[in-house]
């Protein structure tokens, strides 16, 4: 995307210490770099530097204590990107710290101190204590699951264009939630939401960092367009990851491998602020059990507060960690009973009409049927035998084959997120422009929307163009996530096109016309 005229370039000034009080910021050496324009920090924020209304504990810029390495202390603005970043102007900012204690980085550190966000979260079904007193077999163990960098294909970049005529701000970003971006910026600047327009053409990967307001503050202060392009090292330094989990389990089962009860203790590493960590813990608790029926289950969740960059949502949103624990439990029991894990899986599957530990009655439950069909169509048993024979004959080369069911919930627990909007223009030459509330992150969302328009309006896909996702076209957008964007936005686009098609059909009938 080409830069706007008179654009300035920004680079982030980051904390090099965790849990450290900022004593002094010295920009003297940085200001000597040719092209230096300004340093922007928390005192330059015109509205609120505290983002508690949106992200509890978050600040636009560090005001006193840097909670983690990578905390954003300020922004250096220069006439060129070379001056701001490549000439290391940002690195020339000298910062004095007072180190505080304790410094907590791991889940084990948080357990020792103890350091948590809020109280323990609990979920229970049945009488687990009675089960453990009368069961045939009990196994227990602890599972550690590491974090994961999102590592999207393109690093985050932002361009902010302030208006000199009024208070309007246009920001071009790569976030999946344009409305959230719009509202945060308005809050930080102390302006109405309608002053802010967030534009998203497409983004090169999902789950971007919440950075957005930081770039807008210098643009407003200096009254010139600002561009910030993060390199990979900076992007990884300031971004949260998939949550590390510690999961301790105790499972009761029969001699044949049928589950009787499950006791779970879970801890996740939230990082230095809460962000989405409680929601992710709750999602993990709901996914515990996967496709298997535990009539008696007790789950305790702890959200750990540490001095790492705040971890955030990643693909699966807590579900993969819980399902990995279930898979581990199945493998553990199978190894103990010296039987095939697939046998344990099939023995413990939910059945039609069963109720989950969170109270949902399973309707149209097709997992057992699907497993049976796949077992036959893939010749799974024969493949297992072939793998076993190969592994017996080969010392250094090994093969494996497995079939694992997954029960994963989609959609938003926040009910008003389960909506979408669309804007469809049909021009006199028959061409169509559409805009919707979803963000294209490589999942083919725009292609699906074009296909829907082509079908409803009975026109060629060559006549249809997708406009950008922007908050001045579609307001109150839903975050693109939870595996819902195609369904929500697709139905909105379809509904809009059906209204237009109905009007066009009336014209065709009344005038005996052909508009194809």
Could you characterize what this model shows?
This protein is of the alpha+beta class and 516 residues long. An eight-stranded mixed β-sheet has the order 3-5-1-12-9-10-11-19. A five-stranded mixed β-sheet has the order 7-15-14-13-8, sandwiched between helices. A three-stranded antiparallel β-sheet has the order 4-2-6. Helix content is 30%, strand content 22%. It has three domains: 181 residues, Aldehyde oxidase/xanthine dehydrogenase, a/b hammerhead (Aldehyde Oxidoreductase, domain 3, Alpha-Beta Complex), CATH 3.90.1170.50; 195 residues, Aldehyde oxidase/xanthine dehydrogenase, molybdopterin binding domain (Aldehyde Oxidoreductase, domain 4), CATH 3.30.365; 97 residues, 2-Layer Sandwich (Aldehyde Oxidoreductase, domain 4), CATH 3.30.365.10.
Concise structural overview:
The protein has 516 residues and is an alpha+beta fold. The protein has helices at residues 28-31, 81-86, 107-112, 128-134, 178-189, 213-222, 232-238, 277-287, 319-337, 341-347, 367-377, 380-393, 445-457, 485-511, and strands at 8-14, 20-26, 36-40, 65-66, 72-78, 94-99, 121-125, 137-145, 157-162, 169-172, 196-200, 226-229, 245-253, 259-271, 297-305, 422-426, 432-436, 464-466, 469-470.
